[in-house]
Amino acid sequence: MEIVEVGPRDGLQNEKRVLPTSVKVGYVSRAIAAGLRRIEVAAFARPDRVPQMADAEEVLRSVPRRPGVRYVALVLNGRGLDRALALEAARPDEINYVVVASDEFSRRNQGMSTASSLGAFRAVAERARDAGLFVTLTVAAAFGCPFTGSVPVSRVRDIVADAGPLDEICLADTIGAGVPGQVTELAAAMRTVAPVAPLRAHFHNTRNTGYANAIAAVTSGFVALDASLGGIGGCPFAPAATGNIATEDLAYLLNRSALKTGVDVTAAAAAGTWIGSELGLAPVPAQLGRAGDFPLAS
């Protein structure tokens, strides 16, 4: 089961302390040392709105390039893609484009309706693929909107159906409102409109359902799960959106469920504790750094 490390982007963007580039690169290096191989490292967002990501270009120029390690950058529009492509040799390997499922949240987050955002995605995706980049469509607030409440499964299904060709679909519980039954229902809906696209999920643990949702995703055919070392992060445009599910806790759950992640949970927990100290968080939301690993039966 693949874990996509999103701490350097989704984790840091909601924390009050803005870290220097060198610390962000150290965070990425620790993620690699813990066995993570697909890492979202930056967002090409407006620096005045997301100051934590203002050094996106410098981060991508500075992170270590290792065989088998893929870097992801969040792109919200054509200007963001222009910034990514301008990096040339330091480009990300993938872009992650977010379309918000509810119009109200989309306008607050991206200044446009869901339909307008989806139209922009199609144009950006075509250009990105022509440049050789892997493209993920993330449907944010797929499990609920902080402003308008429940989001119908049909709404998410229709967004994906209208998106055009997809390398990967990521369904995001941006505010941690979802429960396992929704995961199962959304997975079934995706298969009616995108039967072969890989499914990825992004869960927050706002209401303590994130890890239950992760197991539901595994059993529903998702092949990748987002998480952040330390369990840090959230969405700066969603009220009360707390951290992502923690990489170290998720890896412990999956590893002990006979699902290979390639993640060393002890190293991951140390990285989570370290980034918490850099952010002034004591303790971080993750549990494994306090409890420690527990050995498998021999």
Automatic annotation (TrEMBL):
Keyword Metal-binding: yes
Enzyme Commission number: 4.1.3.4
Lineage: superkingdom: Bacteria
Annotated GO MF terms: hydroxymethylglutaryl-CoA lyase activity; metal ion binding
Family: Belongs to the HMG-CoA lyase family.
Keywords, ordered alphabetically: Lyase, Metal-binding
Xref: CDD domains: DRE_TIM_HMGL (cd07938)
Protein name: Hydroxymethylglutaryl-CoA lyase
Segments forming domain Pyruvate carboxyltransferase: 1-269
Any one of the GO BP annotations: L-leucine catabolic process
